[in-house]
Fold these 2 entries.
Entry 1:
Amino acid sequence: MFTDARTLPDQTSLEADLAIIGGGVAGITLARALANSTISVCVVEAGGLEPDAQVQSLYEGENTGIDYSPSATRLRLFGGSSNHWGGYCRPLDAIDFEQRDWVPFSGWPFSIDELTPYYKAATEIVEVAPGRYNDSDYWQRVTGEKLPELATGRMRLQFVQFSPPTRFGSRYGDELKTAANIRILLNANVTRISASGDARAIKRLAIRTLNGLRHSVKARYYVLATGGLENARILLLSNNVVQAGLGNQNDLVGRFFMEHPHMGGFAEMVVADLKRMPKILRERVVAEGRPAKAAFNPTQAFLREHHLLNATFMMGVVGKYSADQLPDAANANDTARRDMLLAARYFLTDNDYAVKPGRADDIGVWLGIGGSCEQAPNPDSRVSLSTQHDALNLPKIKLNWRLTEQDRLSFYTHLHSLALEFGALGIGRLREMVADRSDWPQPLGGGSHHMGTTRMSDDPLHGVVDRNCKVHAVDKLYVAGSSVFPTSGASNPTLTLVALTLRLADHLKAQIR
Amino acid sequence: MTDGHRSLLSLFDIRCTRRTFLLSAILSLTAGGFGSNRYSLADSGPDPCVEPPWLWKAIADRQSAARLGQACLDAHPEYGHCHALLMDIERTLKRQSVSISPTADAEQTASALHHLLRREYAGDEVVSVAGWVLSKTEARLYALVYLVTTMDDPFSEPASG
């Protein structure tokens, strides 16, 4: 059942076994996992069923670090940020879960094995099943193109699978609407999680609407699932008992904010003969109804040997060069690419390598390279509360996203590996476009991936939540979503956060019974 | 002509044509005072750029390669000697156990270079040239093309590759 909180009588108090704050990917996944059970569920969603500028403006915030928009990188409506999700799916790598000596604050409380069965189920939910994320044989077979055997030991091929993308609100809304045990409260902004005097128990959720109403939801269990920025904000706003904010006794809430730094224009590749570069390496390929594209990732052995962070590179054809086309002498990049393609033609094409004019790409093509990388957990990269206030008179978030030299050097090392790999394969030549490696390539942005602000650790001194995603020192309050990631890996987070939420659902089912 | 140079001529079976002989002789006599390129005029004395026959098999487009070669020399002035470049290429081929018999033809040598380049990329034996990540031997080849192209003009023969 959907209920618009703006239409309820003022001061309405609702009750449920479980209150889920947030109707985005995590909240909907959790609600679905409990649908038609004996557990009554109230999903408290701040937005409505459609985008609304006034509602969305509640996501605006102050930014003091790397240029970043707290509002444009998330959506405040039912279905959450899945409404602008790109659909990239790939699990984290096994090494991402490990405590790595060279990555400060690394290590999940469990290994990838703990998540493996949930990844399988998550793959169904995001509609890419069965997952073939590292199955080169499969993609080779279904595409009919032999994939290169990488030669340097530095990189490996993985496969990103693309969700339609699943818009969780429209895809699963009806299912939740008809579930007898689920109520979805729309346009209901949780302004505080009210705790008992000793801050060990939650009394209720304080809710306000933009038309001035105040409601509350009382539950036996609570799950905070509002995304990596808002999860921290709501805990920090819930400071009626603990001044630093709920669950923030150790000053960890909001710290360790992580993104996947995304860069463009930092390098390009030229390829003279596309027959040497299977299509799945350069564009999305649909096989058996499943779109996928190859990604280049560092091998785990290389990461260990050189003490590096993880990364992902993908590429696509941007331009073609033909012998019939006059070189653009005024364009230095064009000249450079043509020169490289023609000079190295013997090494980059098969036996009969003379240019035979007639095709738009008879000389070759150039490819843009997209890269994203893991950033090391950094306590100074953080979300806190601003002195500015939103339309509900609540402090906005203040975001200070920071990266380290370790992050940058890792990225450049992997970029170099990519150049070596394509050279060793005889496929292409890579040109770095960054003049000064002491800085990040520009433009530098994120992937709208908000992670780490309520990080998971068995030790309350190092984590906001425990291995079950329960807030340390607060009973029956849990956090769902990528804010619990202790490290980010280099995979898009949606698949992993769905898997983690399914795991949380199993835990809650056992607890609530 | 040094022993090293003779060895290279033998290795790559360079045919000493009338024009290359003439060019070598002139360059030897003028001790670097002839020719337009600025990199061959080294302290070590004359450095005649006699083109090995495999060069135009491995390099399809001499103008493009020469432009890259110029960038190679800007970034790595130590590549400014034809003789040294050829010696380096020979040494590298031998060190990598790439087989080139003294009677190898241009095609065989170019093919051996192809494999050498791939090995160098795999082994991170690369240099940066105007942003391009190039295997060391590949960069030497382009530098060689630049030197040969700028020095043998106007005597150059049409590209055979």
Entry 2:
Amino acid sequence: MSVTTDISANLEGEQCVLRFSGSLTLLRVRRLSEQLNEITHEGIVVDLSEVERMDTVGAWLIHKLERDRGATITGATAEQQLLIDHVAAADQPVKIKRDYESPFQRVLGQMGASVMMAGRTLLGLLGFFGALMIAVWNIARRPRRFRLNAVTQQFEVVGVHALGIIGLMSFLVGIVIAQQGAVQLRQFGAEIYTINLVGRSALKELGVLMTAIMVAGRSGSAFAAQLGSMKLSEEVDAMRTIGVSPMEALVFPRVFSTVLMMPLLGFYAAVLAIVGGGLFCWVSLGIPPITFIQRTREVVPMTDLWQTLIKAPVFGLIISMAGCFQGLQVKGNAEEVGLRTTAAVVQGIFLVIVLDAFFAVFFTALGWT
Amino acid sequence: MAEEEPIIEVTGLKNSFGDQVIHEDLNLAVRRGEILGVVGGSGTGKSVLMRSIIGLQRPDAGEITVFGESMVGRDEEEAKHVRRRWGVLFQGGALFSGLTVSENIQVPIKEFYPGLDQELLDEISVYKTAMSGLPVDAGAKYPSELSGGMRKRAGIARALALDPELLFLDEPTAGLDPIGAAAFDQLISELRHALGLTVFLITHDLDTLYAICDRVAVLADKKVVAVGTITELLALDHEWIQEYFRGPRGRAAANIAEREEADA
């Protein structure tokens, strides 16, 4: 391994004889190619008789001399010649760089692609909703195809397992709202209105919205990842060939259970937020719990609860559909699963917030203020 | 050659996953310059053996030396100079998904020989790409844009990037069409002659075994039950070996090999 390569260049008549010796390998190739660039003579003869070791990179250098500068090769052993021939045979115009695009073109292209993508996703979701409705219809006509086990299992995963984290989060959010509200309202001596603030915002907006975000992060992403990896391992295709509809077997139980669990979780979150707010009011503002509850009953209208209970299933539908849709879009490689999972969560949350704005306008128009 | 120190030597190897013992008291020596085929039924631990030798799987017991250096318990940095002398092809190709094929080929070269100019790197990746039988537009593609067989070829190109002395191949011809598989056999045997390669080859392809392997090691019953040329193995009275080489597929491959020899 310690052998170095040496080139000696001798002018012999018209010719320039390059005599290589030692090892002609990747290890030496950097210095070698620099040295070779310095030699500018025409009519090169390469003498390899003193080369002890040669690898394909060395052979490539020799081949380049032969190709570009018309060098003649002498003194190569049969093996070395074989190697050079091999490399020469592999000397094809292989494309290794992507075609160049100007940055302007690229940005324009990316913008176009993402608009197309957004449009296609929206259309796809619509189509997916249609396919889901067909599956629901099929199941409604033949209730035996309702997979009770799958649905109850999803109830547990989506609903029961989320109780802890959603409860804790809502409780803390309730405390934060009460605390921040109290600080502001104290300036007007209207601390008592903290109860209105906590009760109404929790029941109308915060409970269901925070729950939706948490469910999108927990379950929407899980749906995308599960269905995505099933798609990758061709499980979904296998299912289809056996005659089981993935829509009925995989998507429906997930969507159904999310739609059913969301109102329950949303209500539970709102209640815990109110409990958190109440605790803060008791400890920090000195409002006893009994007063807090009474006042809450007075100021929070029933319509606030209706709003939560109407919005929650819709949000559940959106989140679970985005998750399943993105999961089933996976094709190609494992990297795609990650991208689709991210897309499922982002789309789910985005659509939920957009819809929430619509709901707010709609309910106000109804007079449910 | 027989007297020379083996390039890989495995003694008393033991591997297990939980309660399941994969290898027990396994011994194997690979001679310099040979192509050693490793065969065995599914689940006999062929890939695990390879992973133990290249240091990805820490054995429970036993000694493994490669190029005369012990490989058990060596940390990555320390064994780097050994790693540069071998190339590995994993079953699925194991290409880096964020890099194009030509960038994949350049990774080991850049890692071990920093400072080469980009032009030369590009040239090297070009001829390695062509050498492994990939089409001309493959160099700029990402692994996800390639078929399974093409990914495998790209993996071979990367394994050969450093012109290694020792090559580990895990089922290189699985998933290739017969023409591609034959071309691959030829590529390996030519490179072996030109570069003095030693090849550790896990395969189920009987044609490959007959065409290029000098010796075949048979894994069964948690150890290497026999090593030798196919003729030597056929003379042994071992049920699995007899079934493997005398079965319909084995006979067909043997016939082809015989005919080719007669033609030559």
